[in-house]
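Table 4 source record.
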Amino acid sequence: MDTNYALGDLSQKHFTVISRMMYELCGLSLPENKMGMVKARLLKRLRALRFNSFEQYLRFVRSDESGRELTSMIDALTTNKTSFFREQAHFDFLRATILTPLIAKNRRIRIWSAGCSSGEEPFSLAILLKEEVPDVNLRDVRMLATDISHRMLEIAREAVYEKDILGDISPQFLNKYFTCVRTKPSRAYKVNHDVRSIVKLAWLNLIEDWPMAGPFNMIFCRNVMIYFDKPTRQRLIQRFWDILEPGGYLLVGHSESLTGSSHKFSYVQPAVYLK
């Protein structure tokens, strides 16, 4: 480690300032037990910018009229853990229950992956659509995938993943929907164009205005609302209700639940709700 700078500790005052900024900007709730995580992640920004203290760093964030460093701070502090076909039960439910009537009636299909991180979720959904709807590219099918992290969206746009990240992809799907683009030092694969073409990637802050009109048949917002406080979750759930079509589905993470929030959704099965 470079020892040219003696990086100071993250004080309670600075943690409070950072927590307030993140809450006001993107609804992210940072409780006291996240103080160590905040320090560890932002120390990388201090080193990159050659600052000696969090005081210097926060002054810079406030004075940066371009907003680029604020974006970098949000990128650093938003959690982006994901994987292909994560929480398989949702994909089984989508295949067995949601897609069948939409396909049979040749209806439009609109899916929103809200909090798509580095793209694994929407690309998994697109692969499922390719499997279940062979002529999906000729149908009226669109998927919107949004995230607040510019860094994660860049990874999704590149759509290149290391072999170890593709652990949940079957060899059949790997050969069918991915192309090997690097063999050394480790193998990496790019999602094929016919899968990527189904997904529209866009930056979006969930607590701000939404430019899309909807309605959606289904919304995947999984393992996102756990980082919001109860009032923010409440508002978001109502907005999801408003932009879903009647009979539309909201799918949340299996570690999440709408229990404790006032809402109009009907419970279907764990982490699946119906409008």
